[in-house]
C-alpha cells in the first residue's frame, strides 16, 4: 500500500518510473524501480534548490605560467582529466529566463551529480499517506520500515571498462584509471572530476586530505633530518659513554627496582637503551618541537586559504548550509508531536518540550562520562598490570651471580613497556567498537533538529571519546610515569600494594616513543585492513553467484545493488581517522620525530585506498554540498593549541634536556668536556643499612654498603 501511494505521488511530481519484474532479477526475488527525471522536473527543482548553471564561458586570461611547472610535470594529470569542461561564469537557474543559459543539449545540461541531488530531494519529501492521523513522507522512512530495501543513484559505467554508449562520459572509468589505482600515488588528484561525480562534500574531503599530505611532506623531511642528527651524534653522546664505561657505569651500584625479589644492579646494564634514547632525546628534538608548533599553525592557515579558493572555484561562496542540511530531520518531525508557532515564519513547527530536552541531555551526558571513566579505569588497570608484571620480569631477567643482564636491549622496563602498549592497543580497539554504537544511539536519543546539528553533536561525542581513548596512555607515560616514585625507604605505593614504577634509567622519553609507535602504527594498519579488505570480501561473497552470468542477465542496477552502502556517516569516519592521526603527529612529536614520516606514508596509501573503495566497492553516494570541512576545523584548531602546550611540557618534564643544561652551566668542572661527570652528579646516595624490612632485597652477596 505504501509503495503504491508513494510511487503514484512520485509520478504526480513528474518523475518517470519503470519497474523491473523480479523474474528479470538475478536471484528472482527483487523488484527494481528505475527513476528517470525528465527536463521539466529538472528545471523546476533546479530553481527550488538554487542550483547554479553556466551563462558564459570564462574569458579571464589564465594566470602567468609557474616557473616550477616543468619540474612538477611528472606529477600532473592530463588536462582533460583535470578540467573535463571549460570554466564558466554561473548564475542560479530560473525557469523563466532559460534563453540566458548555455543550454546546448537538454540531456547533458545538468551534470549527473546535480540530477541525483534533485531526485534525492524529491524522494526525501514525497508523501506516502497518513498513518495515525499524521502525514508520512520520505524515502528514508520507507527504508527504515522495510517498504524498500535500498535506494541509490547508479554509477555511470563499470570501473574497468568504458560504457558502450559513446555519449556517456564514463567518469567512473576515468576516476578509476587516473586516480583510484595505487600506481598513481605520486600524481595530483582530479578534484574537479571528483566534485562533478561525487558532489562537493566528498570533493572537499579529498582536497583536505591531499593538502594535509602535501604539508606533511615538509614536516617528514625535517623530522627525518632531526632523527639522522641523533643517529650520527650517537657515539659522541657523553652521558651514554659514561653509562657504558665499565670504570664509571660499571662501578655505580643502583638500588633494586622492586621490593624483596629484585637485586642490586650495575648502571652499565642499561648501556644500549641509553644509546637508543639519544636518538630521540637530543638538541634537535627541541628544535623539531618548536618547528612543529609553527608548522601546525601554517597548515591550518594555508588550509583556510585553499578552502576559500575552492569555495570560489566551486561556486559555493553564497551557499547557505544547504536547505537540505538545515531542514528538519524526518526523525525529529516524527518524534515531536507538539507544535508551536515559529515567531519569524509564523508557521507551526514541531518542537521538543524543555523538560524532555533536559532529561535527554542528562542521560547522554551521564553515558558519555561513564564511558570516559571506563577508559580511565582500563588505563589504571594497564598501569597495575605494568607494576605487577614488572617485578616478575625484573627477577627473570637478571642473573643473580654476575649482575649482568641476559640481553643488552631487553631491559625489564622495555619488556613491560612493549607488552603493556600492545595490551593497551587491544583494549582501545575493543572499547572503540562498543562506543561507536553507543554514541550513535545517544545522539539518536537526543533527537537533534537538523542534519547539521546531528552531525556536529555526534562528532563532538565521538571525538571526545576517541581523544581520551587514544591519548590517555601517552599522557600517562609522558607526564605522570616516574614522577611519583619516592626514594629508598619511603617509596610511594599504588593502592598500598604495588610500588610505583620508575622510568627507564635512560629517561621516560624512549618509553613514550615505544608507546606512540605501537599505538599509531597499529591503528593505521588496522584502519586500512578495515577500510579496504572488509568491503572487498563482502562484495566478493555477495557477487559470487552472479559473476558467471552474462551482462544482459546481470544488469547494471543489480551490480550496483550488490555493492556496499556509503552511509551518511561514511565521511565522518574518514575525517575522524585523520584527525586522530593529526593528534599523534602534533601532540607528542617531541618524543618521536619520525611520526610525520609514518603519517605521510600512511596518507599516500590512504588517499588511494579511499578513492579505490569509493570508486569500486561502494554504491554511488548521493551528491551533497558542503563549503568547508565543518566542525573538524574547530577541532583541529583546538588540537593545534594543545600541541604547543604538550610539546613544551615534554621537553621540560619528560626529556633530560633541562637537567643537562643546568649541569652544563652551573656544575660542570671539566672545561674540555663540559658534560663529563653528569651521570654521577644526577644520582643520589643511599646507605643500604637504612633499608626498611619491606624494601630490602633478600640477598646481598657482594655486601654492598651504598646504592644509588
From TrEMBL:
Record-stated family: Belongs to the anoctamin family.
Keyword Glycoprotein assigned: yes
Positions of the Anoctamin transmembrane domain: 194-670
Compartments reported by the entry: Cell membrane; Membrane
Name of encoding gene: Ano5
Cellular component per GO, a single term: plasma membrane
Chief place of localization: membrane
Domain of life: Eukaryota
Topology relative to the membrane: Multi-pass membrane protein
UniProt keyword terms in alphabetical order: Cell membrane, Glycoprotein, Membrane, Transmembrane, Transmembrane helix
A Pfam family hit: Anoct_dimer
Ranges of residues in domain Anoctamin dimerisation: 1-191
Segments passing through the bilayer: 205-232, 283-303, 368-393, 413-435, 462-479, 579-600
InterPro entries cross-referenced by the UniProt entry: Anoct_dimer, Anoctamin, Anoctamin_TM
Name this protein carries in UniProt: Anoctamin
One MF annotation (Gene Ontology) recorded for this entry: chloride channel activity
Protein source organism: Tichodroma muraria
Amino acid at each position: 500500500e505504501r509503495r503504491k501511494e508513494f510511487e503514484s505521488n512520485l509520478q504526480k511530481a513528474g518523475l518517470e518510473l519503470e519497474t523491473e519484474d523480479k523474474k528479470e532479477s538475478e536471484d528472482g526475488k527483487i523488484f527494481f524501480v528505475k527513476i528517470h527525471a525528465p527536463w521539466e522536473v529538472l528545471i523546476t527543482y533546479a530553481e527550488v534548490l538554487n542550483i547554479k548553471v553556466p551563462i558564459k564561458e570564462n574569458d579571464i586570461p589564465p594566470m602567468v605560467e609557474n616557473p616550477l611547472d616543468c619540474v612538477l610535470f611528472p606529477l600532473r594529470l592530463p588536462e582533460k582529466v583535470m578540467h573535463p569542461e571549460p570554466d564558466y561564469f554561473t548564475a542560479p537557474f530560473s525557469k523563466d529566463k532559460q534563453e540566458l543559459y548555455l543550454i546546448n543539449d537538454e540531456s547533458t545540461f545538468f551534470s549527473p551529480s546535480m540530477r541525483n541531488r534533485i531526485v534525492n530531494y524529491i524522494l526525501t519529501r514525497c508523501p506516502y499517506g497518513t498513518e495515525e492521523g499524521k502525514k508520512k513522507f520520505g524515502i528514508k522512512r520507507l527504508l527504515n520500515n522495510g517498504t524498500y530495501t535500498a535506494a541509490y543513484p547508479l554509477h555511470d559505467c563499470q570501473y574497468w571498462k568504458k560504457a558502450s554508449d559513446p555519449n556517456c562520459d564514463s567518469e567512473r572509468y576515468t576516476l578509476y584509471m587516473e586516480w583510484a589505482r595505487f600506481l598513481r600515488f605520486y600524481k595530483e588528484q582530479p578534484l574537479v572530476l571528483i566534485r562533478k561525480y561525487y558532489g562537493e562534500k566528498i570533493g572537499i574531503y579529498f582536497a583536505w586530505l591531499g593538502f594535509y599530505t602535501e604539508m606533511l611532506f615538509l614536516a617528514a623531511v625535517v623530522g627525518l633530518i632531526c632523527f639522522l642528527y641523533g643517529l650520527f651524534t650517537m657515539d659522541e653522546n657523553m652521558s651514554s659513554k659514561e653509562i657504558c664505561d665499565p670504570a664509571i657505569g660499571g662501578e655505580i651500584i643502583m638500588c633494586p627496582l622492586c621490593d624483596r625479589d629484585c637485586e642490586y644492579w650495575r648502571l652499565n646494564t642499561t648501556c644500549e637503551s641509553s644509546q637508543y634514547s639519544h636518538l630521540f632525546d637530543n638538541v634537535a628534538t627541541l628544535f623539531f618541537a618548536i618547528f612543529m608548533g609553527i608548522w601546525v599553525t601554517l597548515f591550518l592557515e594555508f588550509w583556510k586559504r585553499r578552502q576559500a579558493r575552492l569555495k570560489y572555484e566551486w561556486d559555493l561562496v553564497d551557499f547557505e548550509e544547504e536547505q537540505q542540511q538545515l531542514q528538519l530531520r524526518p526523525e525529529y518531525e516524527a518524534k515531536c508531536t507538539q507544535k508551536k508557532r515559529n515567531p519569524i515564519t509564523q508557521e507551526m513547527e514541531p518542537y521538543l518540550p524543555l523538560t524532555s530536552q533536559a532529561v535527554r541531555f542528562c542521560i547522554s551526558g551521564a553515558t558519555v562520562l561513564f564511558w570516559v571513566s571506563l577508559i580511565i579505569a582500563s588505563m589504571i588497570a594497564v598501569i597495575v598490570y605494568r607494576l605487577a608484571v614488572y617485578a616478575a620480569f625484573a627477577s627473570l631477567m637478571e642473573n643473580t651471580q654476575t649482575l649482568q643482564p641476559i640481553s643488552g636491549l631487553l631491559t625489564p622496563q622495555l619488556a613491560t613497556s612493549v607488552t603493556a602498549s600492545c595490551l593497551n592497543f587491544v583494549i582501545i580497539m575493543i572499547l572503540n567498537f562498543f562506543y561507536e554504537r553507543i554514541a550513535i544511539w545517544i545522539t539518536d536519543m537526543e533527537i537533534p533538529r537538523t542534519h547539521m546539528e546531528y552531525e556536529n553533536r555526534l562528532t563532538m561525542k565521538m571525538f571526545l571519546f576517541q581523544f581520551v581513548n587514544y591519548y590517555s596512555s601517552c599522557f600517562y607515560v609522558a607526564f605522570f610515569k616516574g614522577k611519583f616514585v619516592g626514594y629508598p625507604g619511603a617509596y610511594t605505593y599504588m593502592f598500598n600494594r604495588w610500588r610505583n614504577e620508575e622510568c627507564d634509567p635512560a629517561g621516560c622519553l624512549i618509553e613514550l616513543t615505544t608507546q606512540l609507535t605501537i599505538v599509531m602504527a597499529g591503528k593505521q594498519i588496522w584502519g586500512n585492513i578495515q577500510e579496504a579488505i572488509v568491503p572487498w570480501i563482502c562484495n566478493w561473497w555477495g557477487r559470487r553467484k552472479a559473476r558467471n552470468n552474462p551482462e544482459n542477465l546481470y544488469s547494471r542496477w543489480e551490480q550496483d545493488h550488490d555493492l556496499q552502502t556509503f552511509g551518511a556517516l561514511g565521511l565522518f569516519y574518514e575525517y575522524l581517522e585523520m584527525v586522530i592521526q593529526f593528534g599523534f603527529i602534533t601532540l607528542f612529536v617531541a618524543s618521536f620525530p619520525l611520526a610525520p614520516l609514518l603519517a605521510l606514508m600512511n596518507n599516500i596509501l590512504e588517499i588511494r585506498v579511499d578513492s579505490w573503495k569509493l570508486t569500486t566497492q561502494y554504491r554511488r553516494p548521493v551528491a551533497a554540498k558542503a563549503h568547508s570541512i565543518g566542525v573538524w576545523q574547530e577541532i583541529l584548531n583546538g588540537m593545534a593549541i594543545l600541541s604547543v602546550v604538550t610539546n613544551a611540557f615534554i621537553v621540560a618534564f619528560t626529556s633530560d634536556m633541562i637537567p643537562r643544561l643546568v649541569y652544563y652551566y652551573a656544575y660542570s668542572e671539566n672545561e674540555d668536556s663540559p658534560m663529563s661527570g653528569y651521570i654521577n652528579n644526577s644520582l643520589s646516595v643511599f646507605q643500604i643499612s637504612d633499608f626498611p624490612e619491606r624494601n630490602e632485597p633478600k640477598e646481598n652477596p657482594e655486601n654492598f654498603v651504598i646504592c644509588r
